[in-house]
Write a structure and sequence with these properties.
Oligomer: single chain
Largest sheet: none
Strand content: under 5%
Number of strands: 0
Helix content: over 70%
Order of helices and strands: HHHHHHHHHHH
Shape: globular
Length: 203
């Protein structure tokens, strides 16, 4: 592993554990076992280092969603597939939803950089699925709803279980095994809810 990779790994741990504002490049340097000057040499500023890490996670998610969003077929099935991808991505590092929530509140400008990419990957697909959804509703194959309804439900169902984890651990005393079972159950439930809420049938 190169020094740059060691710094990135240490920075990800610091940002994911402490959030953006509570992380310093000095702490990152200490965790990586390098000098503060070396962190600055590779990344110049804390913001540039953070954006590098955020880019990796966000673009990986968008890249995973692209083939699903461009797929043909039942629009509700596309929504459930997309929800599964989002859920699984968040499950890879369960701290990521908290980091996104933190910067959404305190540094929303960090997320604006992804709007163009999101539009490129998803906007045309969402319009295509909107037209398909309207056809399904006319043909009594989907319940009365909008793509925004589905989009908001997917985001809520895919993210909220992870935001519950601190309470479940610290208040309810659930261990890692119980949390795994909880998340597996919520993933299955998420798919069932989406199908029950929006599908008239699964043809």
């Amino acid at each position: 592993m190169t020094k740059e990779e060691e710094i990135l790994k240490a920075a990800e741990e610091e940002f994911f554990s402490n959030g953006y504002d509570a992380t310093s490049t000095a702490n990152i340097a200490q965790r990586a076992g390098v000098t503060h000057a070396m962190v600055n040499y590779y990344f110049r500023t804390k913001e540039k280092l953070f954006i590098r890490i955020l880019d990796d996670h966000v673009y990986e998610l968008l890249h995973s969603l692209k083939p699903v969003m461009q797929a043909d077929g039942n629009v509700i099935r596309v929504a459930t597939d997309a929800a599964g991808i989002i859920f699984d991505k968040l499950n890879q590092d369960r701290r990521f939803p908290f980091l996104l929530s933190d910067i959404s509140r305190n540094h929303p400008d960090f997320l604006l950089r992804y709007k163009e990419t999101f539009d490129t990957v998803c906007k045309d697909s969402l319009e295509m699925h909107r037209l398909r959804l309207e056809k399904c509703i006319r043909n009594a194959q989907a319940r009365e709803c909008t793509m925004n309804d589905i989009y908001n439900t997917v985001l809520t169902l895919a993210t909220s279980p992870f935001l519950n984890i601190p309470v479940l651990c610290n208040v309810c005393g659930m261990d890692d095994s119980a949390i795994d079972e909880y998340l597996n159950a919520r993933r299955r439930e998420m798919i069932l809810i989406l199908q029950a809420r929006y599908s008239v049938n699964d043809k």
